[in-house]
Amino acid sequence: WIEAGVPEDLIIxxxxxxxVGTINDAGIVYSxxxxxxxxxxxxxxxxxxxxxxxxxxxxxxxxxxxx
Length: 67
Fold this sequence. Notes:
30% of the residues lie in helices and 36% in strands. The chain is an alpha+beta fold. The protein has a 3-stranded antiparallel β-sheet, covered by helices on one side. The protein is elongated and about 35 Å long.
């Protein structure tokens, strides 16, 4: 999900996981200003989380990745 929120040409190392009601993704985004990102959820609607987590990733990239 992190990968969906950043430009395709960036290198990303991440590990994602899911269980009923839980979706997580954590990793390193190698942008001009590399950063570590960890996104976790609990007791969520999984389809909603699948749509929202990439949006959060994009917002973080726009703030952190282009510094």
